[in-house]
Specification:
Isopropylmalate Dehydrogenase, globular, single chain, alpha/beta, about 350 residues, oxidoreductase, twelve-stranded mixed beta sheet, 2 domains
Length: about 350
């Protein structure tokens, strides 16, 4: 349900990673600056309080919110606000180690944020990182956020989109082995990704006629079928279809030279697989990049980094990508409301 609200959720993520730390740092940041954004952490009150006082070594007050209470009355503007959803104590967390026992709680944090979004109690949420191995070993329905969110919202059509002030890119395939990428790209799947992405560019980012670049799959974009036929048989025909329907769309481009020279001329870049997009994106936008699950009926964003087990529990985590994720979730929710009102 789309409803105007200043409340933006933050899911705590893996207790053994940097998620709780960046959630606390980001929440504290928005409390201190002049902004309408009101962050609410979905996680463990006990663990958030511990991270704040013992890891970050701050003495800010923490407000416990019951899951069934109204945020308008229970939220405290000068506090870090936490909806406690934990089923266990996290006093013995071993930072930097995979513990499958956390999976069910982590899944419940995400599920609750989805429910709050669907009910209009929050405008959207940003998710702190989780570990796929931990989730799967712990019996969670899915290892990653994107697939879980699709399931929880009954969404069949969604896409992984990455936003920064430098570029916006979307993936034609998500978390699959490279050996499966070619067979997973079909005309229908590529059409679907383009439709989702164009809708997101309009409704979420306010770009009504985006300039779209589509990358090739093979080296040199296939060299007209000499180094693979996916461009000739699948990608180029779909580009032509969209061009004939009035969209500003070019490609397929060889990805190496594209990111060296051409990318700045386009609003949206469609990449064929994960690393084709994420290597250049993270090189250019690591600390300010945001992952957006496009196509969902709710607003979900996240930082572009992972659990960073190597620095967990050491107060070394940079929370900037989480801050940008929260800001973008708020902006997308406002843009969707504007579009709905038109």
């Amino acid at each position: 349900m789309l409803k105007e609200s200043s409340f933006i959720g933050i899911t705590m993520g893996d207790p053994a990673g940097i998620g709780p730390e960046i959630a606390v740092k980001a929440a504290e940041y928005f409390i201190k600056i002049n902004t309408p954004i009101k962050p609410v952490i979905f996680g463990s009150f006990e663990h958030i309080d511990y991270v704040l006082k013992s890891i970050i070594k701050k003495d800010a007050p923490v407000n416990l919110i019951r899951q069934d209470s109204l945020l308008e009355y229970s939220y405290k503007n000068t506090h870090i606000n936490v909806i406690d959803l934990s089923s266990k104590s996290y006093q013995s967390v071993k930072y930097g180690e995979i513990n499958p026992e956390y999976a069910r709680d982590v899944e419940s944090f995400i599920s609750a944020a989805v429910d709050f979004s669907l009910d209009g109690r929050i405008s959207g949420f940003a998710t702190a990182p989780i570990n796929k191995e931990m989730m799967i070993k712990g019996g969670a329905k899915f290892g990653g956020h994107t697939e879980l969110l699709g399931y929880l919202t009954s969404s069949k059509d969604y896409a992984m989109l990455f936003y920064s002030k430098t570029m916006i890119t979307v993936l034609a395939t998500i978390h699959i082995p490279l050996s499966m990428v070619s067979r997973s790209i079909t005309k229908e799947s590529l059409r679907n990704i383009l439709k989702i992405s164009i809708s997101s560019m309009t409704n979420d980012f306010g770009i009504r006629s985006p300039k779209i670049a589509v990358l090739g799959l093979n080296p040199h974009a296939g060299e007209n079928g000499e180094i693979g036929t996916e461009e000739k048989d699948i990608i180029s025909p779909v580009i032509t279809e969209f061009k004939n329907n009035g969209f500003f769309i070019d490609g397929p481009f060889p990805s190496d030279s594209f990111f060296a020279k051409v990318y700045k001329g386009y609003d949206l870049i469609v990449a064929m697989y994960h690393d084709q997009a994420l290597i250049p994106f993270k090189l250019l936008s690591f600390n300010e990049g945001v992952n957006v699950t496009a196509g969902l009926k709710i607003v979900r964003t996240s930082p572009v980094h992972g659990t960073a087990y190597n620095i967990a529990g050491k107060n070394l985590a940079d929370s900037n990508s989480m801050k940008e994720s929260i800001k973008l979730a708020y902006e997308i929710s406002k843009n969707r409301l504007k579009w709905k009102e038109k």
